[in-house]
Amino acid sequence: MTSITPKITPIYQTSVFKFQDLDELDQYFQDTSSRYLYSRNGNPNSDELVNAINQLEGGAGAVATSSGMSAIFASILAYCQTGDHVLCAADIYGGSAALLNTELSRMGITVTYVPFEQLYSLGQFVQPTTRLLLAETISNPLLRVADLRRLATECHNLGLKLVVDNTFATPLLTKPLSLGADISLHSVTKYLAGHSDVTAGAAVAADPEVAARLKQIGVFYGLTLSPMESWLAVRGLKTLRLRVREHCHNAQAVAEMLQQHPGVRAVYYPGLPDHAQHALAKEQGGGMFGGMMSILLEDDQEAVSGFMRRCQRFPFAPSLAGVDSSLSYPLGTSHRALTPEQQRDLGITLGLVRLSVGIEPAEELVEDLRQALG
Ligand SMILES: *Cc1c(COP(=O)(O)O)cnc(C)c1O
């Protein structure tokens, strides 16, 4: 028989693995990492993804999940049970807030939102049952940057865990665990996979026991990732370094043009010197600022719709971080579920448009936006 040694891990498109006899089954239960049993518990493709992301984040172990949402869910459950309380940065992905408000609340886990300005003085928000703070390295949609080292110190002084959603930054800009965070999690759907063709997530822990707990939650709640999606994410991940470099380069060019444009009232991009956390972003991101930004147009629905219709290279598609550019509208999509008061407090108004700058030639993106602004 010809020996087959593929360079790339094949897709193990199987839900279950075979055992010769009971000895082999015993072998498995003596060391569950020695072979595979059932794909929900583990699969060569999801393990390859887990190992790659764990290494990038410098973790002690990780779980690959069916989505970013399930990574957030698993991370909160790793530390919390009924009766517990969590803190959450007010500037947070809309889905995270919806999960906390509508689902985790039913499980008896309560939440208090902390305004950005008060993230480093958490004492006033802490209750005896508070377990953790959930925050984003670079927030959505206003691109505010959290000082993770300071945040970790503040959390640990109060006996809290720090759970960081590192989706916007990627581990190439920032490795939260190295700055003291306890869990770093991702919507792998975004930069890590990078091609807008897979939904996936991952949560990485600094402590091996927490990593084992994340894995167990993944298996028991059925949150783990399928072989095909894992394989696609692994393939995307191989070019992360190249992609992120181009995303950053293009976003800087786009932001600098937009800042000069009379049709744009504000540009929120950490790479601009007048961004409120520019110095921190530069230090924490190793000189890279990512590919996401938001811009403020006229607070007028017709003006925004006209801009969207004229954009050729930025289709309105409510996601982000693909190699192809896109734009989104926080008020109507990610932050739709917030109360009008919350939306106003976060600066999410009628004119706010979020750009995900892709890896196309920078001058083509700049030119397209210029013509769309008129
Ligand atoms: C998209 C996103 C999520 C949710 O991830 P899904 O893969 O869509 O479940 C969580 N956090 C951030 C910052 C995101 O952008």
UniProtKB/TrEMBL annotation:
The keyword Transferase applies. Belongs to the trans-sulfuration enzymes family. The keyword Hydrolase does not apply. Signal peptide: none annotated. CDD domains: CGS_like (cd00614). SUPFAM superfamilies: PLP-dependent transferases (SSF53383). This is PLP-dependent aspartate aminotransferase family protein. Keywords: Aminotransferase, Pyridoxal phosphate, Transferase. Its cofactor is pyridoxal 5'-phosphate. One of its GO terms (molecular function) is transaminase activity.
